[in-house]
């Protein structure tokens, strides 16, 4: 039998596809260990890469079979091609099992063992294929192509039917998965191309009609869909990385905030307690009323520091402080703030002037008191004059109020005004 030269035309697309599948399989296999766990696990990509490699060998064997000038060589390469179809089916099912998270014992253990039995059957290829070759001639896009096809042995027919049934079962799982993952449209399109080409080739294999084998092209469509999904996964991983980086930066800012709180807000009342304690230990201090006043100052500062430490502990445990919100009594709140500061001791000529007609306000007394303490204390601390005057005013606005704290000090240098809300 003389095989016409036109037969080699059918080998060229298989060679091209085989090359693409080879490099794609190597890429997926080598990249799988570095994939983050998530939508697609590294095992799924490993099996998909092995499937691509098996398909590459399947394509190369088919191209070799179509280009052989003699019958024995054509039979040999068709046998090789049929052999590589077995691990191809096994790898694809295992890829689907890991990707779709199918935990059935059959797909995870029984199915691979059956595939291994079919592979062992190729120790004697005639168990799977008959030696008789059938050459079919058909017209493909105006080009006459002759394609060798072998007669399947009963065991080979059993393998085809077994692979087809498993493909249908896994296909049902794929349809359910893709129905709930509509964003993975590339996988859906590739899967349908693969399913269509597989069904077409099964029909050709059972002589329902004559035509070229398209299975490798269908898988190439699935490969393209997987490659696109891989790029999406890499992009998602980068977004997660950026998000974690931002969260880490936020955590670092919170740490700096805690350090600032400890070094400033908690240290200030502690310094006051030390100062009042030294005064009480002064043997020259005999006035009972003055001693009582210092003790009251110590207790006020101790209570304030206890409150700050309690909030700090809650913040460290929960990430936020549960605030007690209520209607603000401005006269009481300002008086409690001034009692903690005790400005008259260090600035006897200074004074704090409080405006009248404060608006009603609902908020956190702790936070407002802490804010007033910082502003008033800084006004006195950084003033270059002994007669420091701080004026407090409150004005109602739509949906809130304006709290104004003014002083007669030097003010904040213009170059630093943009940084007043930064930590430190």
Task: Please explain how this structure is put together.
The chain is mainly alpha-helical and 424 residues long. 63% of the residues lie in helices and 11% in strands. It has 11 helices and 7 strands. Strands 4-6-7 form a 3-stranded mixed beta sheet, with helices on one face. It has a two-stranded antiparallel ribbon with strand order 1-2. A two-stranded antiparallel sheet has the order 3-5. β1 (129-140) and β2 form a beta hairpin. α1 (11-31) packs antiparallel against α2, α6 packs antiparallel against α7 and α9 crosses α11 (365-381). The chain starts with 10 loop residues before the first helix and ends in a 17-residue tail after the last strand.
**Rounded radius of gyration (Å):** 41 Å
Report low-confidence residues grouped into runs of 5 or more. 1-7
Spatial shape: rod-shaped
Total beta-strand segments = 7
Number of discrete helical segments: 11
Strand % is: 5-15%
What percent of residues adopt helix (DSSP H or I)? 55-70%
Largest sheet: 3 strands, mixed
Mean pLDDT over the residues: 77
- What's the SSE pattern? HHHHEEHHHHEHHEEHEE
Strands ordered across the widest β-sheet = 4-6-7
Task: Tell me the span between the first and last alpha carbons.
Answer: 92 Å
Derived from helix and strand composition plus strand pairing, the structural class reads: mainly alpha
